[in-house]
Structure formats: structure tokens, C-alpha cells
Amino acid sequence: MTSRTATTTGFAAILLWSTLALFTAMSGRVPPFQLVGMTFVIGGIFVLAIAAVRGRLHLARPTPASFLLGLYGPFGDTALYYAAVKTAPAAEANLIHYLWPLLIVLFAALLPGGGLKARHLVGALIGLVATALLISGSLGSGAGIQLGHMLAALGAFVWASYSVLSRRFAGVPSESLAITMLGCAIPAFACHLAFETTLWAPNAVEWGGVLGLGLGSIGLAFICWDIGMKKGDVAFLGVASYAAPVLSTVILVIAGYAPASWLLAVSCILIVVGALVASFGSAGRSTEPKAAGS
Q1: What is the rounded distance in angstroms from the CA atom of residue 24 to the CA atom of residue 122?
Q2: Which of 106, 108, 136, 212 has a CA positioned 20 to 30 A from the CA of residue 30?
Q3: Confidence class of residue 140 from pLDDT cuts 50, 70 and 90?
Q4: Is pLDDT of 270 > 90?
Q5: What share of the chain is helix, strand, coil (3-state, %, to 5)?
């Protein structure tokens, strides 16, 4: 797979994540850890099915190190994100969580041959300004900083660091994430039984949110992102990820979970400009990531 193809695949995950806030909000009364367990089981089975159809089921075996990284990243961030959206207004928690693209761009400089360029940094800062505008509007509602806001920020750090560290495991097939996701469901259900009350009968909307998360925002998106991080342009994908908070906020507005505002329009323009600046001259650049974790 070429770097350009891997980068395009990684961008597909960004599009899938634009539905993350909506599906999480739709999940309604489902407790956070129960939601993590349910969506990871659905996602893991879905990815295994895809691997089987493609004749790559034999590759769905993580190394011990990559499995532990999965516990840290996908499990840790997802649990923090679900909890954040359920303990703070969905739009606010979602936007704060999207500080992770800037962190990815900056963390990319730590990679061997990471290639952090001035255009990446400028593009990331433009995107950060756009996200800051959205956050300032959300926090201006008068509710102040809540626990959910802090959980969202912590999730941003976890996901950014996981994404960049994934580059060190380029030799581990992305299909292995299926077993990792199923494994992550175990501590999720354990935490659920210890700290939460089970919701036995989600309604149709809540099931729609659970299935949307499991099949798209968790299952397919994690695979696409893994490919992009391992073989694509990490810094550019970090900047391009700024499209997700705008797209997700637009979807929340359309679905009635957040109000429309002029800040959204300005942020859309800034994010497009930031992505264009970051992508200038990056087409066709190849990468040879160092494999680890085998």
C-alpha cells in the first residue's frame, strides 16, 4: 500500500468519526462502560467478518505489545469520550476532545523521520483557532468547566499519543485490532458490573446509536485509522482531523442536539484553509515506518 492510499484510508476514519458525537448522544441512557463493551464487541466481530471475507482472518492476531497499546488507546480514549459526552453537553465535550489533532501534529515530530514541516504546524494552528472558536462559544453558555470537559481533554491526549505510537507497530496487521477490540470489551464489562447499573432494554434510538458506534465509529473507523497511522502521512492526517469536529457539530445541529451559530461557519472556513495549507506539497510523499512489537 502506498503512502497516499494509506493516508486516504486514514481520512475515511475522520469522516466516520464525524458521526461519533451523534451516535454517542443517541445511545442515551446506556452507561459509559456498558456502551464501551457493547460497541467493542460489535466492532470486533464486524472487523473479523471483514477479514474472513478478504481471506485475511489468519492475520487477526495482535502481539502482546500491540494488544496493550490497544488497551491504552482505543479502550482508554473511548471510555473517556463516552463518559465525557454523558457528563457534559455533547457538543462541548466533543469539541474539547478534538484537541487531539493538534497533539498528533506535534507528537509526529517525535517519530523517526517524522517530517514535521512548517506547513503542518501552520495548518494545525489554524485548525486549533477554529476549534477554539467553537469551544469558546460552547463554554460561553455559563455552565463552566465540568468533569466531562476534563475527561474529554484527557481523552484527547490518550488518543493522540496512541495514534503516534501506532507507527511503531507498522508490522502488526491492522486486522489484529479485531481481537484487541474484543479483548478491550472484557475490562469494559468488568468496570460496568463494578460501577454501573445495567440498562437491559435500550429503546430503538439507543440501539441505533450503539450499532452506529460499533459498526462505523468504532469498528471500521479504527481499522482505517490504524492503516493511516502506520503507513500514511501522520502529520497531515492530524491536521485533516480538524474536519471531524466541524462535521460532527454540523450533524449535531441537524439532529437537534446542538444550536447553530455563526462560529460554526467561520470555523468551517478556517479548517478548510488549515487543511489546504498542511497538504501543500505532501502528495506522493512516501514513508517507510519502522516496525515494532513483533
Answers
A1: 32
A2: 136
A3: low
A4: no
A5: 75, 0, 25
